[in-house]
Design goal:
The complex is a heterodimer.
Chain A: H1 3-16, H2 24-48, H3 50-54, E1 59-62, E2 91-92, E3 107-111, E4 114-121, E5 124-131, E6 143-149, E7 152-159, E8 170-177, E9 183-190, H4 194-202, E10 211-212, E11 218-220, E12 228-233, E13 236-240, H5 242-247, E14 254-259, E15 270-274, E16 277-281, E17 287-291, E18 297-302, H6 311-319, E19 321-323
Antiparallel strand pairs in A: 1-15, 2-10, 3-4, 3-12, 4-5, 5-9, 6-7, 7-8, 8-9, 11-19, 12-13, 13-14, 14-18, 15-16, 17-18
Chain B: H1 3-24, H2 27-43, H3 45-50, H4 53-66, H5 92-104, H6 109-119, H7 125-132, H8 136-151
Helix pairs in contact in B: 1-2, 1-4, 1-6, 2-4, 6-8, 7-8
Classes of the chains: A alpha+beta, B mainly alpha.
Chain lengths: 325, 164
């Protein structure tokens, strides 16, 4: 047998092992009842708050247009202060002195406390990231070797393939620590050679000024209490707790994304009208979507374990999202 | 409860538990994942029942498991603490399969899901791509990397290198 056959047998063996007794239906029944109780108590609380919520929620209804009850009271204290307005404007301080021909403008990202500049043109994606949180490798390296950037020890990661690689493409990543202790990482997915990527790494900070992106795809009028920008890009914003914003470079908390795909509402989805836009979500789902009408859509999702905003709070937030054309 | 939902869970529950276990690599996590998915499915059952419940639940299990919202950290691996060996057979082949099971715990969630969907569910790359909302070529990349990772270090242990 080969590995594939061994793997198949392994999975079948594991699946065939005797199952410990479990009353799946009872567990699901309990979960369904708990969900019902949460909704019922939320509806009761929401009835008290209809007047207050209506100040920020022009209309809440289902797909049929029928009014639907608000579900949930505001999670924030009455005197809690909403932040904002917000518009992505991250900057990247280490402007490179050398770039491959035709690189074009960079897009800048806030990734928690780190900042990333990315050049993306046909067949080549080049990025540089700097900050206190150690960056993750973009691609699983096939091999690594030691090198030096500005005289400081660096690790070069190499792979001859990655998702979407064309013939001749390679992955080159270089990671090292700056004099102030911050991490730095440059990554190339495309045709650049290792020496070209090292040249790019060496040139970081050689040019005057800072890098900025073009205007963001959207603006946000208000951010919920206790949440601050954690991840920012032209088409993305994540709001998270200050601690998350300090410690994590991956998206956390509550994220707004402009997607290059339409959103087709499903009959079972609840309709929320906010900010003059129709939003849709499945009941109890932790995301809402709005079709922008030009093949794009707006998506807001959140981690329910971190973001405990009520429906009125969500409506207040999404009502303040303005998309640029 | 919907009568049809009860019938479905009674008929397919154990099979779904096995799939959730393989996806998670841990029985308790698998039970939690399946229960979460079934609670959500219950509310939409009339529509789900009219289509293909198995396909819907399978897709929901995988997507829910690989969703970043469920991850506690980006570096988390799917397997946590792998369950112990399957009792009763301590042959060379069984030792190898225990090693493979352990190594599955070192894959990313997506890689592991691809392995389970391809080798346990016998789905083709196009079907797996639909579940994972990616392209078939991306599925092949995940599969190639997963197999490479599993194969690494196994050369001396696998039956590929063992006596015929």
């Amino acid at each position: 047998m080969n590995l594939e056959d061994d793997l198949r047998v392994t999975l079948l063996d594991r699946a065939a092992a005797p199952l410990p007794p479990a009353d799946l239906l009872a567990g699901v029944d309990t979960g369904v009842r708990q969900a019902r109780r949460r909704r019922m108590s939320a509806v009761a609380a929401g009835a008290v708050l209809v007047v207050a919520a209506s100040l920020t929620a022009p209309l809440i209804g289902r797909g049929s247009g029928r009014p639907a009850p608000l579900t949930g009271e505001s999670a924030a204290p009455a005197d809690a202060v909403w932040g904002g307005p917000w518009q992505a404007a991250p900057t990247f301080a280490l402007r490179p002195g050398w770039l491959p021909d035709g690189s074009g403008p960079a897009e800048i990202f806030r990734m928690g406390p780190n900042r990333l500049a990315q050049w993306d043109r046909d067949g080549l994606l080049l990025s540089a990231e700097v900050g206190p949180v150690e960056p993750a490798g973009e691609v699983e390296a096939e091999r690594e070797r030691s090198a030096a950037v500005d005289g400081r020890p660096a690790t070069v990661s190499l792979s001859d393939t990655y998702d979407g690689a064309e013939t001749g493409d390679r992955y080159v990543g270089v990671r090292w620590r700056l004099a102030d202790g911050d991490w730095a990482q440059v990554v190339s997915l495309g045709s650049l050679t290792e020496s070209e990527v090292l040249r790019f790494a060496e040139s970081l900070g050689d040019a005057e000024g800072v890098l900025t992106s073009g205007p963001a795809d959207f603006t946000v009028a208000e951010s919920p209490p206790g949440l601050v920008p954690q991840f920012e890009g032209t088409g993305t914003l994540c709001l998270a707790t200050p601690r998350q914003a300090e410690q994590h470079r991956e998206p956390h908390g509550m994220c707004v994304n402009v997607l290059d795909e339409p959103h087709t509402p499903q009959p079972e989805e609840e309709k929320l009208v906010a900010g003059g836009r129709d939003w849709y979500r499945f009941e109890d789902a932790s995301n809402v979507n709005a079709d922008l009408g030009d093949g794009r859509s707006l998506s807001v999702s959140w981690d329910p374990e971190v973001v405990t905003l009520s429906t009125p709070d969500i409506v207040r937030f999404i009502a303040g999202i303005a998309v640029r054309r | 409860m919907h009568e049809g939902f009860e019938e479905y869970v009674r008929a397919r529950g154990d099979s779904l538990r096995r799939l959730a276990y393989l996806i998670c690599g841990d029985r308790h996590l698998g039970e939690d994942l399946l229960q979460e998915v079934l609670v959500k499915a219950y509310r939409r059952w009339p529509r789900i029942e009219a289509e293909q419940p198995d396909g819907y639940i399978r897709t929901a299990l995988v997507r829910t498991h690989v969703s970043w919202l469920r991850r506690r950290s980006s570096g988390e691996r799917p397997g946590t603490v792998p369950d112990g060996a399957v009792p009763g057979d301590f042959t060379e082949g069984q030792a190898l399969r225990d090693e493979i099971w352990s190594r599955l715990g070192g894959l990313t969630r997506t890689q592991r899901a691809v392995m389970v969907l391809r080798f346990y569910e016998d789905l083709d790359d196009h079907s797996i791509a639909e579940i994972l909302r990616c392209s078939p070529s991306t599925v092949r990349v995940h599969a190639a990397r997963a197999l490479a990772r599993l194969r690494a270090g196994l050369q001396t242990a696998t039956s590929e290198g063992a006596k015929p």
